[in-house]
Each structure stands twice: as structure tokens, then as C-alpha cells.
Amino acid sequence: MTGFETALRLLADDLLAAVGRGDWDAADAELATLAEEAAAAMAAGRTADLSAVARQTVRCHTALSLGEDGNGNAMQRLGQLRMLALVVAAARSRKPPRTPRLLAAPGTPGAAILSALKRGPLSGPALAGATGLSAAAIAAALPELRACGLVRSWPAGRLTFNASTDRPLTDRPSTGGENATAREMP
Amino acid sequence: MHPADLFIGLWRRLTARRDEVRSLAGRLEADPERAAVLFDAAAERLRDGAASLETWVLDPDARGNGEADGGADGGAPPLDRVLAAAQAIDAWFMPFAAWYAPAAADLRMQGSAAPDGAAADLLEARRRYNRDGRFNADPADGQLILRPGLLARAFNVREAVMPSAGGCDDGFDPVDLFRTLLVVPPTLAVGADRDGEPERRITMRFQRLAGLQDQVPADPDWRPVIGVVPLLQAEDDLDIHRFERDGETWYDPLARPLARRAADAVATLAEQGATIVLFPEVSAHPETLAAISEALRRQAVDGSIRYALVGVRQQAKDGGRPRNRALLLDRRGREIAGQTKLHCWDLDSNQCRSYDLRDRNGRLLDCAREDIETGSRFTLFELPGFGRLAIAICEDLGRSQPSAWIASAMAADWLVTPVMDSGLTTGRWQAKEGAASSRTGYCRVIVANSMALSHRFNRYCRANGEEDMIIHDCGVALLFQPRADEAAAPRIDCLTLPLADPAPGYVCSRWTPDRWQELPEPEEAE
């Protein structure tokens, strides 16, 4: 457990204790701190810290939900914890792709795929054949390349064809998306 | 009109003209530039809304204008436009199923360059999915859902293998035209309960269970820990009650109460980091189930277990036949869902001999029918923090349906099969069926078994001089990691406990298939 999570766990224990003794001012202060830490971790992309926030938020919610005392004040904090947990879960449900330069670094599957696509659009199975990569490696690399805006894709029958967007291999974060269309197909 | 509702209408047209669609798909696969033009035209219309796209599909000027696939019956829209429109909608939904997202963006980014209606449609789609468990409005059409499960968000293996590898008889399944969307049909034909009985249809359902999550299955680095508690360790732990009715012999397995054993296993597995704990088919007596629930509740706050699946025999309230069920409990021990066994496991003479099933006079039985009321509904569950779960109780794994639908849909993350059988090996039927179910998909398969029947099997072996068949290390769990393509073999972990001394009474494995063996080819299997 990291120092951050240890501190967060202490916060969670104090929050539960405050609810237990009916000290709603203290409970709300702890909730505010938890929410601020969650927002800070989300904004900064601190994924490990956000995981810790998720664990402690859900832990607190579980502990409160087990309580026999269903009084209105406790239920209100239970609802606040639930909403915070939902927001954190939504933030953790997606991840930004790496930068174009990292994805296309020499020796990576991304580099092999982009090299193969210089010769024209290819389906997933054809990419596996052209690069020598396994289907699993192709399947793992394509979604991130698309999200990064380096590859655009479109369906052709049951196959998905892929083309390079010729986006510069910069260190800037992505501008594209999974849903890029075939409009600029070479 | 919402894009989801238009998709349902297009899907209906496509499935009604399956052979023509197969031909069209083949031509488009050979001509991706034409496919791109069609797709872009449809996507452009969709940016103006589903109604605009529908107008484009139904455009009378496009009928009979050289689009060989359309207009064959005079009034039908061109099939290539129908398919392109459906695929454009499929792509429109893709952000809902994507693990990777452009930085500092959310789903509205997709609609940001479009009229405000697109953002409103996305919001409505999200509301419907969270509220109703489907994108479409009318439940009579089935459920339009995201095809990728939670594990498949970062790893879309379907686009890297030839679709025919999925396993339809003629190599074509209209489902494979779509990456993001799947229609769960309202009902499915599953065959007769028994020979001579009428064909049955069961209800199909996708259910998203509400709950909070602190784990992210979509993360490729997520490694859950699977715990299996066989529970029934000795032969006497399971009484296979036999009786005569209507001139036939029936069996009804009754587990004895093992509350302490179950609770201790849950407590220890909670300390060892188990994410889910599985109890085999009909292994939990009602008292045992109560103890499991209470043990889960005790670990709820600081333990690791998020879910438990418990095989039970439930007595019918109206005095009818019992039901063979698997109950899903959450971390607090609350029953949140369940699946009833859909097919009976009737034993033939060989099986009666193997399990030493005799009548009251000590004679081996020729056959014994399972005395259960079969279920009439199959549910694909989506569990927060764990993934999509399909439950196939014992015989349900081996029957053609709904196993074939699960394999074809490729929408499940987990297929869990609680069984009551002699020891599992990498060569028995469960390994074959498990490997088939995990083929070229994402679906991880787990078979969980008890140990009581292995004692009966050993008695048969000893009586027949088949000493080499005697089970010493009893297979209580098989874990299958799906293979990514046909060239590879599934990876498998076979977890055993010594039959003579089953301590500690559970097995536990982190999902690390890189360390598991490849499933041997059938001729090399045990």
C-alpha cells in the first residue's frame, strides 16, 4: 500500500467513525477531502492514486451500507459516497493513448503496423500476415493506434480495413479517435 | 428517431436476406475502396441524424440503379446501403466500447463537430443503456447491446482474425458484420428437454447489475484471482437420492450441510486476494448458503472477494421438481442474480456404472434421470468490476444451445460452469467443451467441480481392476485462457486437491495464462 493510500485509508476510517458517532460536520469534511483528492487525481491523470481513491470510496460505501442504522443523515452520506464512486469509476473506464512517438517507436508492434500500412490499406488478418505479428498483438495495438489518430479504419463486409493517417509522430497527445472514418483513405 | 432504433430495422432487413448479405459482404471484403465510399456516405448522413440516414437508405432513386444487391424484389432498399447504414451506426457507438480515448475528451467529442442532436442522441443512448440495459426502445426486438465485454475494450481480437474462424457452419454469421453492436434475441430454440419431448424456446436476457466497482476489467493489466471451493470432499457429503416414478429411475443429489467448511474457505480466500469464489453444482445446502453469505458479509469491507457463485438445489415452493441453480452473491453476501440449469443430465448405463449408482437391491442402474425442473431463461450478466458472465451449469456447457449462441456472439468475458463430476482433467469432456467455448474469442472459461463423485468412480475402478484410472489428485477447477487465433492453443490451468486429504479445501489461482500450459491436442491428452 502506498503512502497515499495509507493516508486515504486513515481518512476513510475517520469518515466511518464520524458517521458512527453522528458527527456530520466531521463526516462532511472528510467527504470533501476525498472528493477533492479524487478530482485532483483525475485532472492530473494519476491513475494509481485514482485506483486508491476508488478502493477506499467503495470500501467506505460498503461499510456504511452494512450498517443497521438507516437514518437519514447516514443515508445521505451513503448516497454521496455512491455518486463519488460512480464518477471515479467513469473516469477510470477509459485511458488516453500514448503519444504518437511512443506508439511508433522502433521495434514496437505500432511501428510494424504503420510500416505495413505505408503500402496501402490492410485488414487485420492481412496486417498479421504483412508484419509477422500475432493476431493478439495486432488486436492489442490497433485500438490504441486509432485512438491516437495514427490509423483510421472502416468496415468492408466482415473485415475492418485500416489505413495510415500519416499523422506526424510527435509527443503531443492524441487528436483522433476510435471512430475515425475512411474519408481520407489513400 | 434514435440511431439504435434505426439499427434494429436495418438488422431485421439484413438477417431476412442472409444469403444476399453473405454475397455482398464477400464482394465488399474484396473491394475495400467501394466499402469505404459507401461507409463514408452513410456516416456523413448519420452526422445529420438517424432520420437523414434512413432517408438515404430508402432513397427511391438509388433502387435498381446498378446496385445489384438491392431492388431485387422491386420495393426493397439497396442492400449495400442497408449494410453501410448499419455499419455506420455500429461505428457511431464505438466510443461506448473503447478503452483508449483521446486525452481530455469524452463521448461528446464525437458529436462536437456535428449538430447538437448528435450529442443529444449519445446522451439518450447512455441513458437507455444504464436504465434499460439496451440501446433500442422496444424490448420486443430483443436487446441491442455493446458486443465487446468489459475485457474486450482494449483488445479487439475479432478484427485480427478471419471471421469464418468463429465457427458458423457456412463460415458466415451476420453478427460478424458488426464490431460494436449485438442484438440479443428475445428467445432462442434450445431443443427438447428429453428425447421425444417438444422443442423448447428459452428467453434470452442481458442484465447489467447495479453496483459500485473498484476494479477495472478493461485494463489489460487487470489480473483477477479465482478461488474454487469444491466443498463436497467425501462421498458422504453428497447423497445421490434415487427413486422410482412413472416406471423410471430418477436421481436427486442432496448436499449435506457444510456451513463451517464453507465459511472458513471464504474467510481464507478473502485474505488470499480472491476476486471471485466459485462453489460447484448443487454443492451448497441451504445452511451452507447462509454461512457463505454471512462469511462474505464479514469480509465485505476489507476482504478481497467481490462475488461468489454458489451451486444449489432449490426446492420448488409448489411441491414440484427442484431446480438446479447457481446463485450469484455480491461482496456483502446478498443474492443479486441466478441462473437455473437449462438441460437435464440423464445418466446412461456407463455413467451409472462409473458412479456406482445402484437400486435398492444393489443392482447397477441402466439409466437414471435427473429430477429437476429445467430453466426457461438464459441471462448474460454484466458485473461491475468483473465483466460479462455467462453461467452454464454442467450439461448446459455440452449442449448446442445456448453454448453456440454464446460462442457466436462473442460478447461474454467469462463462462463459468459449475459441475458435479469425477475429477477434471485436460482430457475430459469439460476440457474439450471449455476449449471450444474459449476459441478465438475473449471468453475465459472456468469449470468448478466437487470431489464426491470421484470416490464413487474410484470404487468402480477398484472393483473392475482399473487401478491405473484411480483418481488421487482430484481436478476441481479448469481455467481456460482463450486463444487469439486458430494457430494457437488455449492455455489451461488444472487445479487439483488430493482426494485422500483435501486440505486446505480450496484452490486459488491468479489469472496469469502466460504461466499456464497449452491445452494438449486430444490424442496427447490424458
UniProtKB/TrEMBL annotation, chain A:
UniProt biased composition (Polar residues): 161-178
**Quick one: where's region Disordered?**
161-186
Q: Which InterPro entries match?
A: WH-like_DNA-bd_sf, WH_DNA-bd_sf
Q: What protein name applies here?
A: Cobalamin biosynthesis Mg chelatase CobN
From TrEMBL, chain B:
Signal peptide region: none
Q: What is the lineage of its organism?
A: Bacteria, Pseudomonadati, Pseudomonadota, Alphaproteobacteria, Rhodospirillales
Quote the protein name from its UniProt record: Amidohydrolase
Q: Where do transmembrane segments lie in this chain? A: none
Looking at the record, the residues that make up the CN hydrolase domain are 225-499
Q: Which Pfam families match?
A: CN_hydrolase (PF00795)
Instruction: Show the InterPro entries listed in the entry.
Output: C-N_Hydrolase, C-N_Hydrolase_sf
Its source organism is Azospirillum picis
